[in-house]
Amino acid sequence: MKLQEIIKQCGFELKTQNENLNRDVTGGYSSDLLSDVMANAKDGNIWTTLQTHSNIVAVAVLKNLAGIILVNNRVPEEGTLAKANEENIPIMTTKLSTFEIVGKLYELGIKGN
Amino acid sequence: MSISILIAMETKFDKTVEILFELKLSDVMRRDIITIGPKDKMSVLQRTLQKHRISGVPVVNDGTLVGIISIEDLIKWLSDGGRDCSIEDIMSKNLQCLYADQPLMHAVKKFDQFGFGRFPVLERESGKLVGIITRGVIINGTLNRLAMEYQDEEIRQYRASHFFGDITADQKNVSLKFKIAGKDFDNAGKASTTMKKNLKRLGIRPDIIQRVAIASYEAEMNVVIYTGGGSMLYNITEDKISIKVTDNGPGIDDIEKAMQPGFTTSESWVKELGFGAGMGLPNIKKCADKMDMQSKVGVGTTLKIEIFIGEDDEAARNY
Known about the structure:
The structure holds two protein chains of two kinds. By secondary structure, chain A is α/β, with parallel strands linked by helices. Chain A has a single domain, classed as Udp-n-acetylmuramoylalanyl-d-glutamate--2,6- Diaminopimelate Ligase, Chain: A, domain 1 (3-Layer(aba) Sandwich). Helix content of chain A is 38%, strand content 16%. In chain A, strands 1-5-4-3-2 form a five-stranded mixed sheet, sandwiched between helices. In chain A, helix 3 (55-62) runs parallel beside helix 4. Chain B is of the alpha+beta class. Chain B folds into two domains: 2-150, CBS-domain (Roll); 169-318, Histidine kinase-like ATPase, C-terminal domain (Heat Shock Protein 90), CATH 3.30.565.10. The relative contact order of chain B is 0.10.
């Protein structure tokens, strides 16, 4: 499923100015430990986290993730957005919790892989 | 004519077909649309077509698309006597439209089916006219994309082996050094992301880049989190990528313990940022073909990581 479609279906608020919303999302990963994401997220995954500092962008770039979803109404720090725009990593926010948003994504067919 | 070439390509060139399905009308359509009003006179149409050197225009009334009119309509009107009347008396009201989110292939099929010179493009939700598509626009869009992909492919194919092959020397290696500032979380990870891009430019295999990136990031984060700063030296040769990470302390008391997954000495505020989970060193070990760590308390730590570029190695298989 394309990222753009997921944003629409889940009602995410897109915080970055991205042009790569046409990417196919290969699956999802949820974690707030960056090392865990480095070890286990896969190419093209969408990532839910409550971390908001700029290192989430570095992790997403290194793992070639499709995008980052910040849960629980969290907002990205200013430096995070600047970096995400520069690296072209979409950052979205939702008021839902990790548990709820993962359920919603799973219903859309985004599985963990 | 050109469109039938594209249709012929459908069976022959998989790449072109792929592009025609990948590109959306919104990627290529002309957005600077020249329009005309339904109450405008036919003489206005003549001047509009002449001025902009185009062969047809959508007819728009208060922002709503109501028809389309082309140079053929104008010629027919002229041969019928050319008595001045309104556009709406002549225009085609039976509209064939496309939507901005449709793949280019749909437009190709539609041109083939109707033989028109242009189609108005609407936004699906609002039904608003957002662009216009002609055969020329399709061909330009496809060629641009082909050129772009060809360029990417050229860069990708310029593998490290070629890079080294072009250079004559007894020993060949590329060395890049980065300074890492301790406790600077804003710039943490910069060396690793930069190296990932560099390795990509060198044409290193993606799975190898991925392992270098992970090992490198974890090592970089260790320097940022636990030490007062240090450096990372990347050395790329024809058969391996080596990373030497050096810092000025405090040093690791028990290396064996530090290697255990989950063991950590980091402070709670660091953990809250998502670091210091005790997974860094085990992650590096998993990615590396060779890993060696020497440390002296009060002096510092030196970590050496090697990842082989060879076709088939053990860590690559286990990864």
